[in-house]
Prior knowledge:
This protein is of the alpha/beta class. The chain has twelve helices and 13 strands. A five-stranded mixed beta barrel has the order 1-2-3-5-4. Strands 7-6-8-9-10 form a five-stranded parallel beta sheet, with helices on both faces. Strands 11-12-13 form a three-stranded antiparallel beta sheet, with no helix packed on it. Helix 7 links the parallel strand 9 and strand 10. Helix 4 runs parallel beside helix 8 and helix 5 packs parallel to helix 6.
Amino acid sequence: MTAARVPFTVSELTGVVRGALAAAPALEDVLVEGELSNLRNPGSGHLYFTLKDALAQLRCVCFRSNAVRIPFHPEAGMTVIARGHVEVYDAEGSYQLYVDGLEPAGIGAIALAVEQRKRRLAAEGVFDVAAKRALPLLPRRVAVVTSSTGAAVRDVVTVARRRARAVGVVVVPTPVQGEGAEASIVRALRAAERLPGVEVILLVRGGGSFEDLAAFQSEDVARAIRTVRVPVVTGIGHETDTTIADLAADRRGATPSNAAEIAVPDLGALREELLARDQRLRSGLRAELAAQRRALAGLEDRLAAVSPSRRLPALRQRLDGRMAALRAAALAEVGQKRRRLDAATAALRLASPQRRLPGEREALRRRRGDLGAAAARVLAARRARLDTAAARLEALSPQRVLERGFSITMDAGGAVLRRAAGAAAGDLLTTRLADGELRSRVVQS
């Protein structure tokens, strides 16, 4: 019978696994390639992420002291190579990779950082063409920001003096590579813009490797180029080299010498161009003047053709003709209206009341006599009818009836009694006779 085994606690087993991992030399310094996912960057500055491939995932942590040394900005979906050591994370009982360094797979970390920086600055509008400043045609003074010991400064000064000795050239020396070169270039740009009379700044350096040009890939240098008060022309490295500083500059030269040619015009060529333009201007002015003279002559001819002084005789003749026609028309109109007036006067004379008045008076006299006779006849007829009606009315008068011996009896209310039954004993009655009235009281009915 075997002795009973004592079980591990979780902590004990985790410690055994940690010891086993620590005893494996292969896990002390490993390189792991995979795709970044679940990337977190909390306020502590540590990086937490997962490396994965098609079959497995590995949890990773990169503490702040190592994260700040990563030259590019890690993004989810990148394929990277992580360097570190494997340990057990006791709190979760899982193993994870403690990352000391990180770089992109297939591309250098510095190159990736530069590309990320370009995208960010482009999104901010630092490279916008609309923000580029125009260069002066003939600057009074040019400041050259570069190393005082390199070949670039000699090339720029030589080209500038050959093209235009009148243009002042002042060198603002600065380191262009190595530790602190970026900050030094920014200070040199600020110092150059404060120099009196400086109208253009040349930021140049000779050729070199990608790493040698790192200072010109700086975000600080790009922002300094955009914020100085005078335009900046760059000439960095060889023709094929294009840095962030070149993209931010107002003009880019392929080389330092080319930058000097862009900033400083060739006075000889300017003189020739000026003379050529002067000749073209003079020729153009002569041609324009001749054309204007021809146009003026044509206008004068047209003006003379329509001039009132030329048209005046014909206009006077037309006016005389129209006045004569108007006079004849007026006379004809007056004659016609006079004839119409005479005819109307004759007709009015024939219809005048003065001529009709005697006849009308005689007719009125006759009608007045007729009217008197007719009125007398009507009056006599109506008087006869009135007499007849008066006689008939007189015959029917109640007073005549009373005079013939009749009487009218009325009750106390003045109503005529037609029957004896209409009065009761004790009623007061009034009897009208031809010569007065009698009052009586009914004794018996």
